[in-house]
Please model this.
Amino acid sequence: MDINFSQIPSSIAEKNNEDLITSILIFKAVRYRWLIRFGQIVLPYTLWIPGVKWAIRRTVFKHFCGGETLEETKKIVDHLAAHRVNAISDYSAEQADTKEKQEETRKNILESIRFAGEQHNVPFACVKITGICDRPLLEKISRNEPLTDAEQQRYTEFRNRLDALCAAAAAQDKKFFIDAEETWINPAIDAAAEAMMQRYNGEKQVVYTTIQFYRTDSLAYLQHLIDTADYKIGLKLVRGAYHEQENERAAKMGYPSPVLPNKEAVDKTYNDGLRLCIRHLDKVSFCAATHNTESTELLVQLMQEYNVAPDSRIVSFSQLYGMRDNITYELAGKGYNVSKYIPYGPLKETLPYLIRRAQENAGISSQMSEELQMLMNEKKRRKWRKT
Ligand SMILES: Cc1cc2nc3c(=O)[nH]c(=O)nc-3n(C[C@H](O)[C@H](O)[C@H](O)COP(=O)(O)OP(=O)(O)OC[C@H]3O[C@@H](n4cnc5c(N)ncnc54)[C@H](O)[C@@H]3O)c2cc1C
Model:
């Protein structure tokens, strides 16, 4: 089946003029790395200044997030349903360093799972582990260091939170993604995700762990899972969102960088990951979470080669809200199983997410300019229509 990602998606065509201009300005602004650096350092301290929150809400927040509450995302979820696009409501809290905040995140994610249960086009829910467990603890576990009694208690509480979320997803017959984070905390996340997959992935996958293919050890880890897991494996395949931080930390602390040195190597590894997964569909169900057109086209081609139906439930695609709608809408139009990750939550909580999106877009100028190009083309089309 032919797919064509070069068409302007209806989501861009449907934008009002103000939103279109805002999106263009956002994508133009994020090309400047210094501006993103500046925003990253300054923004968290300026939210109290009158007008700052208002400005963020009207611009980047509106473009990349579904709203501050689950109810606010509902309008977007319904709109996506009309275009055959699935949705994943993603409560964006990832700096939960107190028990109260972790409990609050757990409750919010539980709500999002209940919400998924009521919506026919929300097949997944998701969690970022740093929203329900504190970083120092994850780091210590990842270093394989013995825990004190108090830490062991906190770890048990975290595992109980995660277990409750996975159980709720299973009860609603929904799938549950566990996001991947930085390498210095991810061994603890992998271990918890594997334990949950073992517990909940019986006949079919409920829990999905995430593999970042910018990691030098990603293919070996994938192969190891396939060879050794005595349960069905659920996988979300991503390139990885913390490339800069990984290199910076490795350089600062003097250890070899755990991420691949260039984009070409990451692209090749990601595509090799797709090939490896599709050869093991008896055991693996996976979601290609990517905005990369070559990888998406490759997976479409592999699905044809391996006789996997476009609307198969074992292979799916996903993109982030506010990005690469041309891929999402084209796949949906051709009957593929595709979803949008819709982050939501209090503006302050979503800042790290927004900064990552800006960093990522600054780092990929060619893919980026394609997105900007589509917005500019739509602007030109409207101007021309008027004259
Ligand atoms: C639905 C969804 C869920 C996601 N969940 C997670 C998650 O759980 N954890 C997570 O870490 N990320 C997650 N991401 C983000 C993802 O890892 C990428 O950052 C993002 O999708 C951009 O990568 P891409 O595959 O779309 O492709 P592209 O846009 O083609 O590639 C950009 C990516 O390539 C890599 N890259 C860019 N420049 C270089 C370079 N110079 N050298 C080496 N590598 C480079 C980086 O990984 C960068 O993010 C998710 C993305 C989506 C769409």
About this structure: The chain has a mean pLDDT of 92. Residues 179-180, 210, 212, 214, 238-243, 260, 262-263, 266, 289-292, 318-320, 341, 360, 363-364, 367 surround flavin-adenine dinucleotide (CB under 6 Å). The radius of gyration is 20 Å. The chain has one domain: 10-386.
